[in-house]
Amino acid sequence: xxxxxxxxxxxxxxxxxxxxxxxxxxxxxxxxxxxxxxxxxxxxxxxxxxxxxxxxxxxxxxxxxxxxxxxxxxxxxxxxxxxxxxxxxxxxxxxxxxxxxxxxxxxxxxxxxxxxxxxxx
Length: 121
Description:
It is built from 3 helices and 7 strands, in the order E-E-H-E-E-H-H-E-E-E. It is α+β, with helices and mostly antiparallel strands.
């Protein structure tokens, strides 16, 4: 991912569910960190400038390590009380914690390989 000029690094916004006690579910979206800070102050900034994709991810094992996957619509509805992806992403962006990733090689997010810049050609 090289959007925003950041090579091989991932910035996630992680939302930890606070309403379903006893669970360790975390949901996250991949973002451009500079645009995220601007969006948090000015909601007129289009989400397309903030997120890397309109996908919500979770870690199947709970927590923040493991294999990332897209949760089912039923799971999203259970935790966010909506299946509307845009509303879910907005909630994650507004209430989530920014987690900056280190440079990575060959990381996978549900079948999407994060490519090195030399792999793009």
